[in-house]
Design a protein that fits this description.
By secondary structure, the chain is of the alpha/beta class. The protein is 32% helix and 29% strand. About 4% of the residues have low confidence.
């Protein structure tokens, strides 16, 4: 059996809030197999975005560890974690995170150039074409609609050929119709490229499109549901609670 592409073990995060410690995550443990589509769901303040940041190595946990493609992030320094992100991960954010002074083409090219790709322009053009923006490559973010900006972000994420795509509320800033179009695009590209998808969302309709749903409440993992093969329902796997 192959190793999971992502593993969180007893992951906790505590910060100081005034004179008292505030626990954001408390002993979260799970694995994600390569090729899975996983949604992380929960109410506002349940720890979803904090968890995603820890899984990406953008922040360090107070306790526990994350293994990314077999690499324990606790054993990596900041430069090594950045190199892992560049090699393994693609990101799609709610706020798009496009650089306003760069065109759509340049936004997609930038991480490729930073990775040393000698065909960055060609790859960026190919991916912008794949997301339906071949005629918008010279446009700046301010000249693009929200849906178009998110398509640029998706092109940028996939252009680096990631093993794992992390998306944080990717349709949160879009209207329902545009959000559905962007979600369709993201899931289609994910299937075509066999990418693992880890999606943080408050949108249950979007979460139901994933093969698995992890539910957070009060910083704890309280549910792990997998889509059944018959009828598209979900099967709940009990989650052990700390004593």
């Amino acid at each position: 059996m192959s190793s999971p592409i992502l593993r969180a073990e007893a992951l906790s995060k505590t910060v100081q809030s005034g004179d008292d410690p505030l626990t954001i995550l408390d002993g979260v443990t799970f694995e994600v197999a390569a090729g899975d589509t996983v949604a992380i769901v929960g109410a506002s303040g349940s720890g979803k975005t904090t968890l995603l940041g820890l899984l990406a190595g953008l922040d360090r946990p107070t306790a526990g560890d994350v293994w990314l493609d077999g690499h324990a992030l606790s054993g990596e320094d900041e430069d090594e974690r950045a190199a892992l992100r560049q090699r393994l991960l693609g990101f799609v954010f709610q706020s798009f995170q496009l650089l306003p002074a760069l065109t759509a083409l340049e936004n997609v090219m930038l991480p490729l150039e930073l990775a040393g790709a000698d065909d960055a322009a060609q790859r960026a053009r190919t991916w912008l074409d794949r997301v339906g923006l071949a005629r918008r490559v010279r446009h700046y973010p301010r000249q693009l609609s929200g849906g178009e900006q998110q398509r640029v972000a998706i092109a940028r994420a996939f252009a680096g050929d990631p093993k794992l795509l992390m998306a944080d509320e990717p349709t949160g800033n879009l209207d329902n119709a545009t959000g559905a179009e962007v979600a369709d695009l993201m899931f289609r590209l994910n299937r075509e490229h066999g990418t693992t998808l880890l999606l943080v969302t408050h949108d249950l309709a979007l979460a139901r499109r994933c093969g698995r749903r992890l539910s957070l409440a009060g910083g704890r993992l309280v549910g792990d549901e997998r889509a059944s093969r018959e009828g598209g329902g979900v099967r709940d796997t009990p989650v052990a609670r700390p004593a």
